[in-house]
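Anyone able to model this chain together with zinc ion?
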Amino acid sequence: MRFVYPQGRKKALTFSYDDGQKYDRRLVEIFDRYGVKGTFHLNSGSLAKDENSIYVTAAEVKDLYRGHEVAVHGVQHRNLPTLSRQQQVTEVLEDRKALESLTGDLVFGMSYAFGSYSPQIMETLRTLGIHYSRTVNSTGGFFPPADFLAWHPTCHHGDARLTELGEGFLHVADYIELPLMYVWGHSYEFGQSDSWQVIEDFAARMSGRQEIWYATNGEICGYITAVRSLEYSADGYTVWNPTAVSVWARTDDGSLLEIRPGERKKLGEH
Ligand SMILES: [Zn+2]
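re: yes, here you go
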């Protein structure tokens, strides 16, 4: 048995964009047009009061990012390793509170400002209810992260290998379970150099494929965490799903298996 994404989809594609500048408006429009999904990491302390700012306004956060995910990037975009523990907590928790208030939703996600983090910071985030945080260390690969609090992306959108990696992902090797392509950046990089064609072309190439789950960072983290939370009998023939998420697998004979929340399933006999 091998795990697959919801409804049997083979792979997942996600995007992650930081800082909440006004160019997010056009990026969301492109994502929506191609049916792909992303997570937008915002600094609540930078959100604008009126539309003359380079930042999106606090008032538009809920509607602008609808269908995507809003996540933490620190109230003031401070460099966490340089702060006291108390300042780290304020930077993360106050951002989480502000974004939850603006979206009316729960916020569990984050990306590290400047890509800076440490084992101590990861531990602090666990305490603050943050489930994942993205680094800026490109892997060029498609494996899900070992630890979601050091979630290394596949590549930045400006990576010279973007097209090649996209093609590699469309033909990803079968030995990778739950393959994932994760692209990150800042929308102002498209806006300031008018290079929107980069993301238009990539989204167009990757869109509309039955085998791909187009999901936010948080949806993917939640799903893979559920897969990893399954409990097995000592003989391995019974599985129990203690989570609130349906988990999907493909059996050796090719049939699709759904293990529903709370369900206990026989996988075979001795
Ligand atoms: Zn940033």
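Residues 230-266 form one domain.
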